[in-house]
Design a protein that fits this description.
Blueprint lengths: L2 H28 L7 H23 L4 H18 L6 H19 L1 H24 L2 H6 L2 H4 L8 H9 L7 H21 L6 H21 L5 H34 L6 H36 L3 H21 L8
Helix pairs in contact: 1-2, 1-3, 2-3, 4-12, 4-13, 5-10, 5-11, 9-10, 9-11, 9-12, 10-11, 11-12, 11-13
Length: 331
């Protein structure tokens, strides 16, 4: 049996159902679901399931792309009619935060742990390089972000930047720069994941080295603990968001590099759906980090209070992602 004959028979056996489903969808979209009879309402989900089955077969047997595209479009239309339209926006939001987001994050946990390991290793490397040779600092941190906080800065200057009143071009400006930088990194490490995750890896390493370089400035002056506390107020949320975004990028990169029995496009699309859910949540985390940066950073100036806020946020995020959306007996 030739591929053409197989594809022709495949279409001939099923296109009646597809045409029927399309006709019912047209009625709902152009008029209202109330125009369907009780029998047609029962028929609609059956036809939708039959279309999904046909789509799965078409993908697995590599039938022509136009047929696969048509079935994908038809299945998407039916999905939104059957499911999305039923659920009020508030319920969708509750479902996203109660189940969708934490489940999606757990689904890419191996990639997030990889991102954490790479970030930590890069931070240690950046710290070691600058301590060994201060000239490395200029190669890692540009002058605008350093703004005098370099290896030549005095302890008094650095201490005042951590605990003193906010000043023009002070650490508050640096925090804004860092938040903007980290937000951009979060988006880029995700968006560039399709390139086998390599750009994601490089950006994450560069960001880790940046942090390590700043610690190389503060630690020799005995201010490493203070810098860590100052950064942690919003950093436990902001850096967590970067790691999740990087994990999402790695997830897509892994699917593209190792698609298995699927085509690379199909594997990337499947991974992209899960990664996109996590990135919606990353935007929320960055907003929370911005609020913490804007208020807590200005009002809290003791190490104990800073660490209390940081550890509370870290525990809250960790608990949420570990246990949120779990069904009894399932992950």
């Amino acid at each position: 049996m030739t591929p053409f004959f197989t594809a022709r028979n495949f279409r001939a056996e099923r296109e009646g159902d597809w045409a029927r489903l399309e006709a019912l969808l047209d009625i709902v979209e152009k008029r209202s679901a109330k125009r369907l009879s009780p029998a047609e309402l029962v028929e609609l989900p059956r036809l939708y399931r039959a279309t999904l089955s046909a789509l799965s077969i078409a993908r697995e047997t590599s039938l022509d792309a136009s047929l696969v595209g048509y079935l994908e479009s038809l299945a998407t239309r039916a999905y939104f009619i059957l499911y999305s339209g039923r659920t009020p926006m508030l319920r969708q939001l509750i479902g996203f935060f109660a189940r969708g987001w934490p489940q999606a994050v757990r689904g890419i946990m191996p990639e997030i742990l990889l991102a954490l390991a790479l970030f930590a290793a890069s931070a240690l490397a950046g710290y070691a390089l600058v301590v060994a040779d201060p000239a490395w600092f200029a190669g890692i941190v540009d002058d605008g972000m350093a703004n005098g906080r370099d290896m030549q800065a005095s302890k008094a200057f650095l201490q005042d930047s951590l605990y003193g009143e906010p000043k023009a071009n002070g650490l508050d400006v640096f925090a804004t720069q860092l938040f903007t930088h980290n937000s951009q990194v979060s988006i880029l490490v995700f968006a560039l994941g399709f390139a086998f995750g390599v750009p994601t890896m490089l950006l994450l390493a560069a960001n880790g080295a940046l942090m390590g370089a700043f610690f190389a400035v503060y630690v020799p002056k005995g201010l490493g603990w203070g810098l860590l506390g100052w950064l942690s107020i919003h950093g436990t949320t902001e850096i967590f968001a970067i790691l999740i975004a990087a994990g999402a990028g790695f997830h897509i990169g892994r699917a593209v590099a190792f698609p298995g029995a699927r085509t690379r496009m199909a594997a990337a699309a499947e991974a992209g759906r899960r990664a996109a859910i996590t990135m919606i949540g990353v935007v929320v985390m960055l907003l929370v980090a911005g609020l913490l940066e804007g208020f807590a950073r200005q009002l809290v100036r003791t190490d104990d209070a800073r660490y209390a806020i940081a550890l509370t946020m870290l525990a809250a995020w960790s608990g949420y992602f570990a246990f949120g959306g779990r069904v009894r007996g399932k992950a």
